[in-house]
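Hi W.,

Here's what went into the run:
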Amino acid sequence: MAKQGYWLFKSEPAAYSFSDLMGEVDRTAEWDGVRNYQARNYLRDEVKEGDRMLFYHSGAKAKSVVGTALVVRGGYPDHTAWDPDSEHPDPKSTPEKPRWYMVDIKGEAELSNPVTLAQIKATPALENCSLLTRPRISIHPMTKEEWDIILAMGE
DNA sequence: GCCAACGTTGGC
DNA sequence: GCCAACGTTGGC
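Here's what came out:
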């Protein structure tokens, strides 16, 4: 069995929120629309079924980790790229030569207390976490230690 | 293959 | 709403 991976996915709640995920059939959604190569590489190569992720709300008001989810399908081609009616079409990506990848996630639990960005910044053990050191990427790998700390803060 | 222009992200 | 950071594009 592959090593358990931990991730943090960012989303603008106005575009797609954690409650949107929890409201899906089977609480499961395709995480499509990623159009950044670094994030794509994570999705394609490293995010595996069985990995867990923190759902982070970015943007003016939220800026906090609000819940957890499970990866229920590892990286596979993002078919919305070659759908001209999708929100993120990319004519350079085709079914034969997919450029973008996505995963499927299933909502698990909402945190009792959302962990804010300010709290994360104020926690010395989290100062090297990818969320803080690599701004402007929508997908961040996390260590088990970081995962445990944030979840404990959210209880 | 360089690099300027441009677009996007996301905290403030 | 501003703007810094940074990724992408495209002319040369």
